[in-house]
Amino acid sequence: MDVKSLNDQELINLYLTGQDRAFEELLGRHQQKIYTSIYLFTKDHSKAEDIFQEVFIKIIDTLRRGKYNHEGKFLQWAMRISYNMCVDSFRRNKRRPQVGQTETFNIFDVLQSPEDNAEQGMIRSQTHDKVRKLVDALPPEQREVVILRHYADMSFKEIAKLTRVSINTALGRMRYALINMRKMVEEKEIVLQ
């Protein structure tokens, strides 16, 4: 069976029947957006890896307990979990213990890197780095909306609910974020490919 042709819900159903390959495919589809959004919140690779692993352990646990409600999209659900874990991490304001490879499950064991040629990979990486730096330079409220909108594909209504602000406030923060990013690009003469 070619798991690549299945949608997220079909992969989840297959995973629940014991097909681990289905979960690997699900993870592979969404790992980049989820990890990047966590990293943009934490600005620390080690902390981002810890939270990323915790997110997927929570997802696996929720799926296995039959508590997953697939009314929304899987990615948006996973992004809400990662957002909440980032917020919890900031509230505790202390370093989380690292989950190493000595644990029974290491999410990084099933990560697969996409096959690009070296030049495409370098260009994409450089562009992503430039955009990340622009997003990092934004005020926290604006950065949060950009991450949730771009990486989680959340609607402004969902962002407003998650961040506990009005839709107009969420829209305004996005507008100012885009204005600020445009100014930074012009002032620093940054070329985005």
Question: Mind explaining what this structure looks like?
Answer:
- The protein is mostly helical and 193 residues long.
- The protein folds into 2 domains: 1-97, Rna Polymerase Sigma Factor, Chain: A (Orthogonal Bundle), CATH 1.10.1740; 117-192, Winged helix-like DNA-binding domain superfamily/Winged helix DNA-binding domain (Arc Repressor Mutant, subunit A), CATH 1.10.10.
- It has 8 helices and no strands.
- The chain has helices at 8-16, 20-42, 45-64, 74-92, 118-136, 140-150, 156-163, 167-188.
- Helix 2 runs antiparallel to helix 3 (45-64) and helix 3 (45-64) packs across helix 4.
- Residues 129-169 form the RNA polymerase sigma factor 70 region 4 type domain.
Layout of SSEs?
Layout: H1 8-16, H2 20-42, H3 45-64, H4 74-92, H5 118-136, H6 140-150, H7 156-163, H8 167-188
Outline:
It comes from Neolewinella aquimaris. By secondary structure, the chain is mostly helical.
Labels describing this entry:
193 residues; mainly alpha; Rna Polymerase Sigma Factor, Chain: A; Arc Repressor Mutant, subunit A; 2 domains; 8 helices; DNA binding; RNA_pol_sigma70_r4_t2; RNA_pol_sigma-70-like; transcription
